[in-house]
Amino acid sequence: MTKKIFILALILLIFFSGCTKKTEESENQKIDLKEYSADFEKNTIEFTVFSEKENPKVLFEIFNSEKKLKCFKYFNLKKGKNLLLINCQEITSKNLFVSVTPSKTETEEFEIKLNPKPKLELKKGFKYTFIQKAPEYNLVFDYEVFVIDKNEELIKVLSKTAINEKDTFDLLLIDNNYFIYSSGLKDTCEEAFSSELTRKFNDDESNIIYPFIFFYYQNNGSFLLNEFIEKRNYEKYFPKIKKTVKLTLIQETLLKGRETYEINFKVSETPAFLANIQSKDPKILLYYKTAHTEFEFKKEIKEEFDEEKYGCLRTNLVVE
After folding, report:
1. The CA-based dihedral angle spanning residues 236, 238, 241, 244, taken in that order and rounded to the nearest 10 degrees
2. What are phi and psi of 136, to 5 degrees?
3. Which of 24, 48, 181, 218 fits a 20 to 30 Å CA distance from 195?
4. Which sign, positive or negative, has the C-alpha torsion 122, 124, 127, 132?
5. Full-prediction pTM beyond 0.85?
6. CA separation for the pair 204, 135 (Å, rounded)
7. How does pLDDT run across 9-55, given as a tens digit for each residue?
């Protein structure tokens, strides 16, 4: 009798052991993250996910490179391929972590690397538009930068700024070290093209050519852009205004999908503005914000400069 009970117990143990194993296997079926892509304008990330079975209420969490939670969403996964769209906060890092937690199994973590937008190259025959707004003063500045000519040593551009429907023109040559030779601000395109291009630094011009403002700072004789990026700091006392200007490169970050350096600008310890310059050459200004104004890059358009349209007079200043 005892032998029969032992055999029966052994059979039951094997049976229930097999059921437990099947249950564990069924609950631990894999979820794979196959593909992903980001829409930086809409701040969304799309995932292609494969699930070996139906999985209700699966939690997807997205963390930045510092493991700070950026966004999360629950999904009911069907068996097989799933297309998932997650709305996120502004995506400022290309290196992200995705945490996937099904309701009945352990969390899986995936590390992903987003592809940034291509850099802006300032291509010949293209126009680059920017906008600056100062709502408090009811001002809107529209910037159009035409790349007229370009070679390995120089970029020739015309900066046209519209301030409350009045146009201002500035013809610029930018060399490999980001030094700027300019016509200075002119009321007409013809005046800009007829002027001698020289290295200069004055407040009126620096307040207009914002896309190249960090190049233009070099014209004051002490600031060097590449040196600043290497050292990440610049500080100088200006006796004329009796103030110390300090620039600090804070971090590398994505701005609407483009790789940038974020820079903090202070005047005598008072924050003046935060700026983002493109981290790859050419290091043009893409965004800045102060307490009263906001400036940002808008778009790149294939458009040859029409000298007749703007009443410009061609001179011998074409880059060879």
Report:
1. 20
2. -60, -30
3. 218
4. positive
5. no
6. 21
7. 444 444 444 444 444 444 556 889 989 999 999 999 999 999 999 99
Residue 148, token pair as written in the block: 């007229």
pLDDT in tens, 184-232: 999 999 999 999 999 988 877 887 899 999 999 999 878 999 999 999 9
Low-confidence ranges of the chain (pLDDT < 50): 1, 5-26, 316-320
Alpha-helical (H) ranges within 131-217 are 189-194, 203-206, 213-216
Both tokens assigned to 84: 């998932």
CA angle, 113 then 119 then 120, to 5°: 160
Residue pair 143/131 in contact (Cβ under 8 Å)? The answer is yes
Q: In what order do the strands lie in the sheet with 139-150?
A: 180-182, 166-175, 154-163, 139-150, 126-134, 294-302, 285-289, 270-278, 258-267, 243-255, 233-238
Burial of 191 (0-12, 13-18, 19+ CB in 10 A): middle
Block residue for tokens 């301030």? 163
Q: Report CA torsion sign: 262, 285, 287, 266.
A: positive
- pLDDT > 70: what percent of the chain? 88
Residue type, 97: F
